[in-house]
Amino acid sequence: MAEKDPSPGHSMFGLNDEPARRAPAPEGAPAAPQAQPAAPQYVLVQPAPQSVPTTGGGKALPWLVAALAVLSIANLVMMLMARSQFNDYATKQADALNLITRRIDSSDERYAQLRGQFQVTSEKLGLTQQELARAHALATEVQKQQEAAVTQLNQAIAQKASADEVNKLQADSNAKIGGLSTDLAGTKQDLANTKSEFTNALTGTKGELNGAIARTHDELVALAHKGDRDYFEFTLPRKKAQQKVGTVTVELEKTDPKKNVFSVFLYCDDKKIERSNKAMNEPVYFLVQGASSALELVVNKLGKDTISGYMSTPKGFFPNTTNVLGQRPGA
After folding, report:
1. Of 230, 213, 222, which is closest to residue 309 (Cα–Cα)?
2. Are 286 and 273 in contact (CB under 8 A)?
3. What span, in angstroms and rounded, lies between the C-alpha atoms of 100 and 82?
4. Which of 13, 100, 224, 247 is deepest in the core (most CB within 10 A)?
């Protein structure tokens, strides 16, 4: 028989080993007892334990939390910086708006002064414009008549008229020109008189607008007796105090006794007018609808958070308000 191929499994358990050949026993010797077959042996092969792969999730979690914290802090810093920039921008815009408001108020005050002067001046300009138009008309007429006279003289010379006719035409022309010259001289004199009246009126208007300032009650009474304006006294004893004078309400904003300046709000015609850092005894002009000229406010007493003074208006502009003369009839 062919030999069996040894198997690895059989080799492991010793099944491929051939039984040892026994030497033949000598003759006459007792036979040796036969060996009993050995019991089979079993070997338990246990597979090696597989290693469980470990993941890095436990180490990455703190890094993720730290990254989120840094990102949150960066967003917070950027938001605070944006808010600071916005506040700076808002502050600059507010300062610019306050500057524009002050310039507008200054323009309103200047406009009030100019309008008061213009209203008085325009009344005088009407007569001046009429006289000027008349002078222009007379000058045009003189020029036309001179041209006509020259034409007639040329025609007379061309027709060889007699010397008497030429002299007559010349005398007529001279008479007409003389009359017109007289009218023109009279118009010139009228213009000079009108100019003088206009200058006096303008001077009076300027004096009226920048007129005398009353520093005491007695001076105010004397001023009221002189002019054609009404005067009303007021006193504001504290900040934000208000007093109504006719249709105008005066409110004290602040005072600075060291610099002798004050700031007030004026309420009239459904609007609020601010007059800031005005000096004591300095006239403050403003316009009110329906007034023929500007109203005037003067503060002649100034203390800590208190002012006293008066308001001047055109005669009869506040008919239902007692003026300084009505307060003391015997003064």
Report:
1. 213
2. yes
3. 27
4. 224
Q: First CA to last CA across the chain, in angstroms?
A: 168
pLDDT in tens, 23-34: 455 555 555 545
Residue 223 is part of which domain span? 217-327
- For 111, counting Cβ atoms within 10 Å of its Cβ (0-12 exposed, 13-18 middle, 19+ buried), the class is middle
Q: Verify that 298 and 323 share a domain, yes or no.
A: yes
Give the whole-angstrom CA distance, residue 183 versus residue 227: 39
Is the pTM here over 0.70, yes or no? no
b (16+ CB within 10 A) / e for 123-155 = ebeeeeeebeeebeebeeebeeeeeebeebeee
Q: Which helix (H) or strand (E) holds 166?
A: helix 163-209
Angle CA 306–309–314, to nearest 5:
145
CB 180 within 8 A of CB 141: yes
Question: How many separate domains does the chain show?
Answer: 2
Residue 38 maps to a domain: no
CA distance 243 to 236: 7
Please tell me whether residues 254 and 307 are part of one structural domain.
Answer: yes
